[in-house]
Amino acid sequence: MDPVPSIDIGKALTVGEVARRSGVAVSALHFYERKGLIKSHRSAGNQRRYHRDVLRRVAVIKVAQRIGIPLAEVAGALASLPSGRSPTARDWSRLSARWRQDLDGRILHLSQLRDQLDDCIGCGCLSLTACRLRNPGDTLAETGAGARRWEGDGEG
């Protein structure tokens, strides 16, 4: 039986190693770095090197992206973490609590849209001018020609 190879946990990772271990393309890592989401330092040969904590940070970024959190918000959340160490379960709990309310609001909004879509298809009018659900009394006519939809206007 071969012995388990030892890993130098203090050794910095190359961009290729981070890409392979995180499942994220090198170009995405460069993009994250330009956006301030992750940091690298340069080796004596001017190559990017990453501390191992970047792997957990990339995982946080990917989860946040999957639930639709804008990268600017992710950057702010990651900036609140201490540098030089991996985010902990406590850190993740704090970060995810920030995003839970937003996610709940989007779920509610999408549920309302789904339910209204069923009603709209049921009436069969397919007309923004005559639609009682989306444009009662043709109120959109007052805002001018063209496709318009008001986000956050209090209508669900």
Query: N-to-C SSE series?
Result: EHHEEHHH
Q: What share of the residues lie within helices?
A: 40-55%
Question: How many strand units?
Answer: 3
The chain-level structural class is: mainly alpha
Q: In percent terms, what proportion of residues is strand?
A: under 5%
Overall average pLDDT: 79
The number of helical elements comes to: 5
Model regions low in confidence, pLDDT < 50 over at least 5 residues: 150-156
Explain the overall architecture:
The structure is a single chain. By secondary structure, the chain is mainly alpha-helical. The protein has helices at residues 15-22, 26-34, 53-66, 71-79, 89-123, and strands spanning 13-14, 41-42, 48-50. A 3-stranded antiparallel beta sheet has the order 1-3-2.
Short account of what is shown:
This protein has 156 residues and is mainly alpha-helical. The protein has helices at 15-22, 26-34, 53-66, 71-79, 89-123, and strands at 13-14, 41-42, 48-50. It is built from 5 helices and 3 strands.
List keywords for this structure.
5 helices, 3 strands, elongated, 156 residues, mainly alpha, single chain, 4% strand
Topology:
Layout: E1 13-14, H1 15-22, H2 26-34, E2 41-42, E3 48-50, H3 53-66, H4 71-79, H5 89-123
Antiparallel strand pairs: 1-3, 2-3
